[in-house]
Amino acid sequence: MAPTTIKLLYFDARGRAEVSRLVLAAVGQQFEDIRLPREKWATEKANTPFGQLPVLEIDGRRYAQSLAIATYLAREFGLYGTTNEDGLAVDQVIQLSIDLSSSIARTHRERDETKKAELVKKTQEVDVPKFLEFFEKLLHQNGSGYFVGATLTLADIIVYDQLDSLIKRGFVNTEMYPSIQAFIRNVEGNENIKSYLKTRTESDH
């Protein structure tokens, strides 16, 4: 049974809730986008399943874990392909995106400034291009401008959100990747996403 009321609780930032917001926006699904002020987090924390955000509330029931939330919403509203093999292909891209995030996250954990600079340089010059090549290859092979099938899926939304953030931070340059550039235009060309992006509150994370 489809949910009758959906609430998404997170801070007033893109962060770990943005993919779910984009999924809901893409399908034109009404939901309550609750932006929690940081000063209220201490009191709200006890009302979350695991003491963290985002939280998805469906007809009064609360769930946590950002990827679980996004996956549920994508499956519920038809953004996970039409077959089990489509789902496998979607998951493959999602895991690749997570690997890219893990590679970049290492640069934030390094405390030694000299080592950090070396790690950032290697990540930007070696690791990130490797993943961009993977994305470019998958998009070229599929040939539709999307990662799986001929329509938007969760894989597209996750990679789009990731690349959009990295491009704006100057961490990624897509000039050498025409399929990725076309892919970004396709996602931003979705009328519902386009409308959402026009009114979105921008943040650094």
TrEMBL record:
Gene3D superfamilies on file: 1.20.1050.10, Glutaredoxin
Residue ranges of domain GST N-terminal in the record: 4-81
Sorted UniProt keywords: Eye lens protein
A Pfam family of this chain: GST_N
Limits of the GST C-terminal domain: 83-205
Molecular functions (GO terms): glutathione transferase activity; structural constituent of eye lens
Function field: S-crystallins are structural components of squids and octopi eye lens. Contains relatively little if any GST activity.
PANTHER family xref list: GLUTATHIONE S-TRANSFERASE
Entry similarity comment: Belongs to the GST superfamily.
Full protein name: Glutathione transferase
